[in-house]
Amino acid sequence: MADKLIIFDTTLRDGEQSPGASMTRDEKLRIARQLERLRVDVIEAGFAASSNGDFEAVQAIANAIKDSTICSLSRANDRDISRAAEALKGANSGRIHTFIATSPLHMEKKLRMTPDQVLEQAKQSVRFARNLVADVEFSPEDGYRSDMDFLCKVLEAVIAEGATTINVPDTVGYAVPELYGQFIKTLRERIPNSDKAVWSVHCHNDLGMAVANSLAGVKLGGARQVECTINGLGERAGNCSLEEIVMAVKTRKDYFGLEMNIDPIHIVAASRMVSQTTGFVVQPNKAVVGANAFAHASGIHQDGVLKARDTYEIMRAEDVGWSANKIVLGKLSGRNAFKQRMQELGVVLESETELNAAFTRFKELADRKSEIFDEDILALVSEESVTQDKEQYAFVSLSQHSETGERPQAAVVFTVAGKEVHGKSDGNGPVDASLKAIESIVESGAEMVLYSVNAISGSTESQGEVTVRLQNSGRVVNGVGSDPDIIVASAKAYLSALNKLQSKAERLAAQG
Ligand code: KIV
Ligand code: ZN
Which position among 222, 419, 480, 504 has the lowest Cβ density within 10 Å, counted as fewest Cβ atoms? Predict the structure, then answer.
């Protein structure tokens, strides 16, 4: 039997740490369901002790997801570990992931602890966690910048205490592939009980090498778990990207010789869901999930692909959830065609009610847009799931007037806790006027730190997808909206960001 590579997804924990990427419990649950469809082995659902909101999210995911192991992060102390264990109680298979920093810099400046104290705390935390669950992962934070002798001592001790997975983070993205691979290999060779644990890699992308480093950790170092996120979401330059790791190991099976449980057909839908939920747009030239990843623009390439696909294609777009024929549905398409197309795209709606609601929105869109592309369907379904939550603010309608030489005017109708309100304003442009019209009622005082528009399927007929990032009292959130009218998409995105600011404020208030 070929060796197996464990895929550990941390979109909902490390990915969420990215400023503005925070997600509600329901959003996390929806993404966890998609990760389960993707057959991810381990889902790191959050950091249960960090907030009540995170505790509830881990708990909800542990109760709902049955096929993947559910993991909670926890600092190396009894309180954090007990909270993690409690949140994981309902899981079919639960894991506690405990960590403490081991690099000289982190121990001295951040923890203000001596190496001996860190060693003791690491041992004690793993011992404590093993009394609560059988599956315990230990991470030496900033492991890659730690002293090799000290790291060996800590890791040998925690394996002796019962850690079942040892994860070696390159916390600041400093590693280069050959050295990182060698680092893992040396650890495994020098630690006498290293064969008692699964070795895992966790790389950040500050130098753009997270995927390369992780693959070196697997190939040269012998690691058998990769920690990664959908779209490479994560703080600063992000984490190792799940779709790139999976497709590299799959496409180059001749080299890696590893099996995975992953079903790649669900990759594009997962990517779309994460970008729609967090507002982190996927760059067009991103490998595997970028809009151009399988587009052949040059005549020579197109000619080659038409004659024999593998002249320029190493993977099949449809294998990761892109469709082979791009024009999909129109006004006359029925419910069955819609359902089938969604299945082909790897989108599974939970119930008939969800399907019906999505189909109604599809019909409304088809009335306004003659050709509906896969990207439209994926945007529509993600937005459908987002708007199912009970929200404080919801878009109703908008009118605006702009004319050369005149100051644009806008009037926006929306609901606040179910009650319809009307806002009016002028502005520098129609988008500015519309958002000011909303603000004239809400008076959030939030500062806009990012506004971006993206054409979902590439032409002026396309839907516009708008991302708005707002900042208020130290909180940063992203809102996303899509519509063929970019002014409406902007108003939806703004309202969605206000909803997130509101729910974040409520979560913080609940924590006291
Ligand atoms: O990057 C890191 O060090 C982490 C650990 C907490 C695993 O995310
Ligand atoms: Zn990390």
Answer: 419
